[in-house]
Design brief:
Layout: E1 5-9, H1 11-14, E2 28-29, E3 32-33, H2 34-37, H3 40-45, H4 47-63, H5 68-79, E4 84-88, H6 94-97, E5 104-105, E6 108-115, E7 121-123, E8 142-146, H7 156-164, E9 168-172, H8 184-190, E10 194-199, E11 209-212, H9 215-228
Parallel strand pairs: 1-4, 1-9, 4-5, 9-10, 10-11
Antiparallel strand pairs: 2-3, 6-7, 6-8
Helix pairs in contact: 5-9
Length: 229
């Protein structure tokens, strides 16, 4: 009988919904250098470019539909006899739209806006502009509520507590190369927690079990195994 499960998901979970993985083999993200669209310095240097980039990401995320892997994880969370902690590096809301609850977005959410002046958060309009005033303080400091390179991911204390409470650590669709998320599996192994990787191709990380295949195939199959007990 499997107790609490900690699930870390990455771009591979949403790839079959039409959302491209974070960084392609050529080092580009949607034909842009990451340094030009995903750092605080990039926003200071060219805020209009960054806003245009995330307006397009927001549009794509809104038009995407959950795939079988998202739906399977929501099903697991609803039907497992112990907590299922869903932590994602993705900024889309496809897990929530599948029925999952309390999803922990460690890298923020593209559907949300953040005031760089007062840290107020609100639901972003489809098209954000550099001069948009914050609805709380009125300052024209609107930015996407995204954790960029060089910034600290959200909810790290909650994530650590969830790992420590779990009996199984599962990594789905993530390369395991971007820290601090890449260290979560190491933490789990140090605590004696069993580890499982579900990925299109096995990573070089030392998981107890690794399964390869499309997320829409291997995640539902694994969920069915867990729910059968």
């Amino acid at each position: 009988m499997t107790g609490a499960i900690f699930i870390l998901s990455g771009a591979g979970l949403s790839a079959e919904s039409g959302l491209r993985t974070f960084r392609a083999a050529d080092g580009l993200w949607e034909d842009h250098r990451v340094e030009d669209v995903a750092t605080p310095e990039a926003f200071q240097r060219d805020p209009k470019l960054v806003q245009r980039f995330y307006n397009e990401r927001r549009r794509q995320a809104a038009e995407a539909q959950p795939n079988a892997a998202h739906k399977a994880l929501a099903k697991l969370q609803k039907n497992h006899n112990a907590p299922v902690y869903l932590v994602t590096q993705n900024v889309d809301d496809l897990l929530e739209r599948s029925g999952a609850e309390q999803v922990i977005h460690m890298h923020g959410a593209v559907k949300d806006a953040l005031c760089a002046a007062c840290a107020h958060r609100w639901t972003a309009p489809r098209e954000m502009q550099v001069a948009d005033p914050c609805p709380s303080c009125g300052q024209p400091k609107t930015r996407p509520d995204i954790v960029w390179f060089g910034e600290i991911p959200y909810h790290m204390d909650v994530i650590q507590d969830a790992i420590e409470d779990s009996d199984l650590f599962v990594s789905i669709g993530t390369s395991g190369t971007v820290y601090p998320a890449a260290g979560f599996g190491q933490m789990a192994r140090h605590l004696g927690i069993k580890t499982l990787e579900l990925n299109l191709e096995a990573s070089n990380a030392p998981f107890d079990v690794q399964r390869e295949g499309k997320a829409s195939d291997i995640v539902p199959a694994w969920v069915d195994e867990i729910l059968r007990g």
